Amino acid sequence: MIKHAFSDNEIQGVYRAIAERRDMRHFTPDPVDQAILSKLLSAAHQAPSVGLMQPWRFIRITQSDIRKAIHDLVNEERLMTAKALGEREDEFMRLKVEGIMQCGELLVATLCDQREQYIFGRRTMPEMDLASVSCAIQNIWLAARAEGLGMGWVSLFDPDRLKKLLSIPQDAKPIAILCLGHVEKFYSQPMLIEQGWGEEKPLSSMIMENAWQTS
Amino acid sequence: MIKHAFSDNEIQGVYRAIAERRDMRHFTPDPVDQAILSKLLSAAHQAPSVGLMQPWRFIRITQSDIRKAIHDLVNEERLMTAKALGEREDEFMRLKVEGIMQCGELLVATLCDQREQYIFGRRTMPEMDLASVSCAIQNIWLAARAEGLGMGWVSLFDPDRLKKLLSIPQDAKPIAILCLGHVEKFYSQPMLIEQGWGEEKPLSSMIMENAWQTS
């Protein structure tokens, strides 16, 4: 037993959340309890951040016309993506890629403005701000799964148009449309595997020792 | 009680890992159990990934001369960062920013090569590959905390020089030097707060409704 280790049940909770978290696109319309939403946002806020930058911002969408406008933006990008996929266009169009109009809560996660003042850990790696916000989003995802709620991260959008829609400053950037809510059931595997879009690569092919090895 | 919710102890484990995870720079030299390392890498591999891309690769550093070379690279960037920080140079130089030579396990996390073939969720947002790898790293971080192990994410390096050192292909990219290992104690707050480098901003200032609001 390692000093500082959690109890067996707590450890199991962490691994279970990691294993059973899914990128959800199917939701039931039940509202999300506001106390749980607060806990999830607090979980996001406890994420690591490069040089204590805390670059995450969350815009909660409560107006139905704005939700609809976000859905329309995503749908346009969905069509553009389908075209860009060439021979897989039809196959892609059959996939459900988002649950924006169905989910109980819709959040837009953004990188904050005025990020150029943060140099610690970013002089050569400015994109570490995105890494921090991604960790914050993963915290929400895992805590939501433990609470029995599903989440989907939608990145099918033109960031400039989403900026305009939500009056996001030019030097900030939306990176995720987060669909959060109750679900009938969680996919037993990632939906893109269930639907035959792709196969999982084995972990063994992703671990190398001391230098890059071409597999 | 929400359908699909975990048990209270499991839920507590998830929130506890999120709350007590720290970016660690102080380690004891005890080795990391290989069975636990495997569990942590499996946790990484269960992360969400844009369009099922699974863009994470991990290079485990077991040769001490390579570990030392990585440390030297980081130390060079530490000096460059200190200079770039101007009036905070001395203050920055007093901070311990990494535990590369002390930690039980050293991993380099990279974005994979040949990423341009992945279009799903990346046509307008190509940086979603970094988001996926960041979620994978957060999985390791949280699972490690539950197991009683600490981790630090070091981004103080020149990615091109680290590529060269580890023979990483030009179209792949190292994004994190991960120091993993046993710790005497976890910081009770983020180390940069404990050391007075910065203060935490309140969550309330990061939540907006329906549009960006200037605080």
Oligomeric state of shown chains? homodimer
Strand content of chain A: 5-15%
Low-confidence stretches of chain A: none
Named CATH topology of chain A: NADH Oxidase
Report on this structure.
Two copies of one chain form a homodimer. With 215 residues, chain A is of the alpha+beta class. Chain A has one domain: NADH Oxidase. The first copy, chain A, contains seven helices and five strands. In chain A, helix 2 packs antiparallel against helix 5 (128-147).
Question: What are its keywords?
Answer:
homodimer, four-stranded antiparallel sheet, 5 strands, NADH Oxidase, 215 residues
TL;DR?
Two copies of one chain form a homodimer. Chain A contains seven helices and five strands, in the order ααβααβαβαβαβ. Chain A has 215 residues and is α+β, with helices and mostly antiparallel strands.
Topology summary:
The structure is a homodimer of 215-residue chains.
Chain A: H1 8-20, H2 34-45, E1 56-61, H3 64-84, H4 89-93, E2 105-111, H5 128-147, E3 150-154, H6 159-165, E4 173-181, H7 191-194, E5 207-209
Antiparallel strand pairs in A: 1-2, 2-4, 3-4
